[in-house]
Amino acid sequence: MVSRLSITEEEADEALYWLELLAQSNTIASPRLEPLRKEIGEIVAMTVTSIKTLRSRPIQNPKSKI
Question: How high is the mean pLDDT of the chain?
C-alpha cells in the first residue's frame, strides 16, 4: 500500500512541476491554473499523511489471532 501511495505522491508532484512550467512559460494564464495547483497540493498532502500513518503503524499479520 505504501508503495502505491508513493507512486501517487510522485505523480502528483510531477503534475505540479508541469503546471509550474505552464505558468512560467505563459502557455496558460497562472490564475487559470490555480484551482488545479490547489487540488493537486491537497492530493499530495493527503497522500503524504497516509504514507506517514501507514509507516507508523505496527505490521499486522492478518492470519494472527492476537
Answer: 91
